[in-house]
Amino acid sequence: MVMVNEGELSRFEVEVEGWAARDDSGILSPINFTRRKTGSNDVTFKVAYCGICHSDLHQIRNEWKNSMYPMVPGHEIVGLVTEVGSEVKKFAVGDRVGVGCMVWSCQQCDSCSEGQEQYCDKTVLTYNAINADGSPTFGGYSSLMVCNQRFVVKIPETLPFDAEAPLLCAGITVYSPMKYLQMTEPGKSLGVVGLGGLGHMAVKLGKAFGLRVTVISTSPKKEKEAREVLGADHFIISKDQKQMQDAAKSLDYIIDTVSADHPIQPLISLLKVQGKLVLVGLPENPIYFHPAAVISGRRFVGGSSIGGVKETQEMLDFCAEHNISCMIENIPIDYVNTAMERLGKGDVKYRFVINVAESYSSPTAN
């Protein structure tokens, strides 16, 4: 845990309002800080909405033991451009734009050259990180963002603005492995473990790709919504041994979105020969399975993070084409602490989104 002197945050030039956690209690409260003025390659935008990711909860409570305070969370950020730098050609004042989980990378390594900036060793995260100039990064629970144009994406006009914000994390986190691992062949079967922010997006994307989707959950209460609202073809209660046995070797692909500790080997048994299981949730403890579970069927278990900037734009355009957005609960920013408590209990369908625009007046430059 690192503490930053709030007095040092005034050495930049644009006044911004936000909400920050100041210690590992995770309680957020109002903060005034400053961002840099728009540079030649920067896009500045007034934040309209910001999604609340489960990782925000982990970070404000220092559960990953790397938190820096004060911390302004938020990496599912959309808004309207107010100013662009002299070298910016793709964006203009008034455009709908977004910033996801990254604000910088080295642009020189193999990962960056392949459009996979998320795996760059020098990637700078949108919050709880240090910029190249030594300043801390602050996220979208704030009135204004300034970001290098390389890490800004265009937000489609055809979808609800607030429901697009979580696509920048929840959407791309499941879209990226599906594309990279070729888990998109129409008619194939996809299992989705967990029906939360990531899981419900995996169901929607799977159906858009033409897959037969099975939701795998510990909660029987989620079956009706999985089938009737999200369009899942099948539903398995993972604690029901008979259902799990009946579904053995029935799935071509599985996306495991669960962040709580849970057994993996029973899920592997659901894969067909040469099936693929990809982990996108981040449980606290290591996972274990017997090598025979994968060797006997040439099954593959891997993991995936978010996507690169180009792929994120591709995902947004795909969602616009197929009318896909997140199911959200729109909240004012002063509800954020209650939202965090509810998120910790799984009491949200399926993403909280902060209505930032209605929470703040326009920030002004010094």
Automatic annotation (TrEMBL):
Keyword Oxidoreductase applies: yes
Domain of life according to the entry: Eukaryota
Annotated GO biological process: lignin biosynthetic process
CDD domains hit by this protein: CAD1
Domain Enoyl reductase (ER), residue spans: 26-354
Cofactor(s) it depends on: Zn(2+)
PROSITE patterns: ADH_ZINC
GO-annotated molecular function: oxidoreductase activity, acting on the CH-OH group of donors, NAD or NADP as acceptor; zinc ion binding
Coiled coil (UniProt feature): none
Keywords: Metal-binding, Oxidoreductase, Zinc
Cross-referenced Gene3D superfamilies: Medium-chain alcohol dehydrogenases, catalytic domain (3.90.180.10), NAD(P)-binding Rossmann-like Domain (3.40.50.720)
Keyword Protein biosynthesis among UniProt keywords: no
One of the Pfam families matching this protein, by short name: ADH_zinc_N
Functional summary from the UniProt entry: Involved in lignin biosynthesis. Catalyzes the final step specific for the production of lignin monomers. Catalyzes the NADPH-dependent reduction of coniferaldehyde, 5-hydroxyconiferaldehyde, sinapaldehyde, 4-coumaraldehyde and caffeyl aldehyde to their respective alcohols.
Family statement: Belongs to the zinc-containing alcohol dehydrogenase family.
Name of the protein: Enoyl reductase (ER) domain-containing protein
Biological source species: Picea sitchensis
